[in-house]
């Protein structure tokens, strides 16, 4: 089981450099940040943009993979976003993974002054977003005419360091999103099951993920893809108990999710306050010992 960590984009540059470097030193396989303009209870707190945050992370580290968890179409257009991703892939020397999903109904959905999209429109926009980004990151020139997104002779020189493009990690729980993951993804991402209240322990959460993995594998087979070629990333914390209170609990959590079909488990870097409050020394002892 590969291990990853989410570091919220709230740290000023010196502290951010030290934290991302420490995540690499602890042996995490990948490290991520959230891509929002405003987020939950931290809406009025310090919050920096995801791409510059990952640029700081890339310059502070050498090995660890970096990514967004997750970006969405809520406030982005594929053409300018592709330019940012090409640049970040170059800065990181080919260590970038783009984690993205359809987005939700929070502040990001309304900050540009429009009403939140319906679930149907959100799914349609996401499908076009994925398709156009895929083209922009593979081709030197792209023209595209979709219902919601278009591009006219968009240039993408010099292209990605990672060929044919940087990898996609697609967050999805529904059939349409899973089909996109099977077609375009190097990885699939889940945080659990939408609509459930409360935090699930490892046993209950693993059963949710097991059912999702079964549907994902069906989508892969339908797309003519080997299901084992798609990584399965599970993010603990928002709905699934992170399993970080002890070494024994972490080992039990990782074992249950691995048996359910997950290949990667992600936790949150501990913060001084909620959400994701925790003791940094205990966290470092737990993960530094692995």
Description:
The chain has 290 residues and is α/β, with parallel strands linked by helices. The chain has a single domain (2-288), classed as Alpha-Beta Barrel (TIM Barrel). It has helices at residues 13-25, 50-60, 78-91, 119-138, 175-184, 202-222, 247-259, 280-288, and strands spanning 2-6, 30-33, 65-71, 96-100, 141-145, 150-155, 168-171, 187-190, 231-235, 264-268. Strand 9, helix 7 (247-259) and strand 10 (264-268) form a beta-alpha-beta unit. Helix 4 (119-138) runs parallel beside helix 5 (175-184) and helix 6 packs parallel to helix 7. The longest helix has 21 residues, at 202-222. It is globular, with a radius of gyration of 18 Å.
Keywords:
290 residues, alpha/beta, TIM Barrel, eight-stranded parallel β-barrel, two-stranded antiparallel sheet, 8 helices, 38% helix
The fraction of residues in strands falls at: 15-25%
Uncertain residue ranges = none
Tell me the CATH topology.
TIM Barrel
Q: How many strands in all?
A: 10
